[in-house]
Design goal:
Largest sheet: none
Order of helices and strands: HH
Structural class: mainly alpha
Number of domains: 1
Distance between the termini: 19 Å
Number of strands: 0
Length: about 70
């Protein structure tokens, strides 16, 4: 059962990474650093990583209590 959750989490992270990588556009005459990416491109990846990390932390605490 644990392997299913891990493989599902890895698959979701890979898919969102691909979405964020393709979502970035080349800036056209943007003043300042031309390599700057908007933070909104990484929000889905950060949310999924935070949910996964939170799940593992809570699960670890529940195992210690038993």
């Amino acid at each position: 059962m644990k392997n299913i959750y891990k493989s599902l989490l890895v698959a979701i992270l890979l898919i969102t990474f691909n979405f964020t990588a393709y979502a970035q556009e080349e800036p056209d005459d943007v003043p300042g650093d031309p390599g700057a990416a908007p933070i909104g491109d990484y929000v889905p990846l950060m949310l999924i990583a935070a949910i996964g990390l939170g799940y593992f932390v809570v699960r670890k605490q529940q195992i210690k209590e038993v």
